[in-house]
Structure formats: C-alpha cells, structure tokens
Model the fold of this input.
Amino acid sequence: MSSQILDRYRPLFNPGSIAVVGATDNVFKLGYHSLTAVTSSGYGGEVYPVNPRAGERIQGLPAYRSISELPRGVDLFVYAIPERQVVPSVREAVEMGGKAGVIFAGGFRETGPEGKRLQEELIGIADAGGMKLIGPNCIGIVNKQAKLNATFASPLAWFPEGNVSVVSQSGGMGNSILNEIMDEQVGISKFVSIGNRANVEFADMVEYLSEDPDTGVICLFIEGLDDGATFLDKARRASRRKPILVYTRGYTESSSKTALSHTGSVASSEAVYHGAFRQAGLLQVHSSSEMASAAKAISIGARLGGDGVFISTHSAGPVVAICDICERGGLRFPPLKAEVSRAIAEFVPEHAVAANPLDMFAFAWTDTSLYLRATDLALAQDDIHCAVAVFVTGGGAGPAFPSRDYAEIGRRHGKPVFICLITPCALAQDIADAQKEGVVAWSSPEKTGKALVDLYRLANLG
Done:
C-alpha cells in the first residue's frame, strides 16, 4: 500500500519532466516567474515552456506553441494562464498523457455557481484521465529533495532542506508558516498550497506524507473541510505514524465569509474541530509561530516522557513567564529531593535557593558550568523528565552557552534538554549552534513555554 500511494503522487512531487503553460519572457507576467521558479531551483528533469505566441525560445529554452507539440507523457503541467483557458488546457494535457497539474488561477468555486460548475468540469476531465491537480487558486508545490519549485515564487527554493512538510489551504498563510519555520532555523521537505482542492484533498496529502520517507512532521493550515469524515479517518491513521500539527481559522462571521470567498471553504465550529482533531490524534495549534516552534522541537526529535520540568536561569523574569505557561498547560516543576538540593547548594551562589526553578543570578552568566552541574543533578530525579536553561546572550557581548556539554548531559540521562536562548534575530547563530548539537532552542520565554506544553499535549493525545 505504501508504494502505491507514493507512486500515485510521483508525477506531482517527483516529475521526470515539467511543462510550464503560459511561460514567457515578459517579467510582468506570472508565466515568467513560474518558469523561473522551476529552472532556478536546480531541477534536473526536462522543462518545456508552452506559449502560443512564443518565438523559438523562452528564457533560453526551446519553446512550444501548444501542448499538442510536446512529447507525449510529460509528468507535471504548471498552468500560469487565466481561468478561461484552464479547462481546455487540462483536457489537452490529459489527452497527451499528463498525470499531474498545478493551477494558479482563481475564478472557480470560490466565485459562485458558475465558478463551481467550471471547477466540476475541470475535476471530471482530470479524474477521467487520471490527472492529479493541485489548486486551482493556489501558489503551487515545493519538494526540496527533488529540487522542485512548481510555484511562481523563486525564493521558496532558498528554504533549507529538512523533514517538516506543510500543506496549506491558503498560499499566504502557507508562506507565513514557512517564514516562521525558516526563522526557527528548521528545514522543510514538502510545501503544498492546496487551494480549492479540485481532486487532491487534505485527506490525500496526510495519507501521502505519512508514507513519504522524507517527511517527519506534518503541518496543516485548514480553512474548512468538505468531507470531514474521510479526512479524520485518514488523519487518524497517519497520526499513528507521524506527528500532525493543525492550525485552523474561519470561525468568526467575518473570517468565515473571507474563507468562503477565498477558497470556497466553509468552516465548522471551533469546538467541533477541536474535539474531532484531538480524537484523531492531531495537535491543534493557534498561530503560525506556535506551529513552527512545536514543529522544530518535534523535527529535532524532542519527546517528553512525563510532566516534570527542571528549569535553571541567571535571570528570573523569563522563568516567571515560562512557568505560568507551562503550569497552565499541565506541566509541573517538581521540588528537588533533599540530597539533590544539598548538592546544588554546595556550588551555587550563597544567596541562591537550591530549588526548582533555580535562579543562579549573574554568577551563572559568567560561569556557565553552573547550568551543567545543576542540570546533571536534577535530571537524575525520576519525576523530572526534561530540563530547560534560560540564558540571555547579552547581544553577543557575553559568554556563549555551553550547548554541546548541555546536550551530552541530556543524552546521558535519556531526557530532552531545551534552551530559552534570548538573543536578537541578527545574532541567531547561537540558536543554530545549539540545534546542531541536538538541543532545541527558542528565542523567547513565550515560545519556550508554549512549545513545551505542545510537546506534553502531543505525548498525551489519543
């Protein structure tokens, strides 16, 4: 079954050849940017620009005046053309053996009855020919492992490669999530702007990504579902294999109207979604930032084996924020055992209280070994399941946190360790260095607290 699902979507995510319909040399046209996105990503297959008004070449590639002139069996068709041209072009591609398509144009079911009829006609043609369609009304797809950028945004190829895959009903929200993931210094595997969902639904994508060997975490942005039962059934099975994070919007009167006019989707009530997603084993988040922060932790491999947290710091304020968020989310900060407290008291400043949370004042900023010694002792407690170190970098002017040694302590105890590394984005190399050592690091106490709660919720789903 696994190979069948992967084979079904191979022409879409791993095409051997791509035709860009509407390709042009005119930089002010969508077809220019669509062809540039394909060719600038490092894609190694054949690329065929198609435009009835073309000369001999488009952007240096041999041009074709019609789809019928192409070699038979082109895998993927990228349509950068107006909606009135889409249906006949898809029909022609199906007749030429095309198996997958990406349609950027809007003007389909989101516009009303006539648009809905047009989309139904489009689906009928595609289904009859076995063609899988992304869109219409989307920005396309990316597969980093295949060096595929079938969008009209060349910069999407700049995102680092990783194991997080994002499927978004909205191209704009998809970009927002990708930007947050990039800010968290995590790589992506697949990006799918699913749009109006002609004949490829969220259910299909979670099924595919659950089998995809390059995907470790699945992130979804959903405005509405047409067939909730099928989605929940496939998502439930997929969530047993891989973590699935879901972010939904469209609950208020104004936002639901916008969703309807945007992709033709009608959202259900927030309470219904929340309960159904939980039963299916999906982790519901409430912002792009929260999704990226949690996806990062999961991607790097962090899992919580219980609710006990040890936290150490040289600055109390961020710990106050983290503790508030964590305790409201079900996590605890267990008291240190007497022998652990006595051992810590021997090396922390004399006016510090050897407790959990542990504030070691500015002494720990200049002598970062205090973090290591305290964490090593605390993680030996059975009721402490992870550790968090809060460290303010000083804008690059102070000492660096000893991430490698901190990570080794976590590995030795078999428990995850995290850092709230408060640093400006311009100096985020500290975060990158920490994550290379296998330590998940966030740049704010709010992100840290919320991500820890999400990891705890994920461990207790089902």
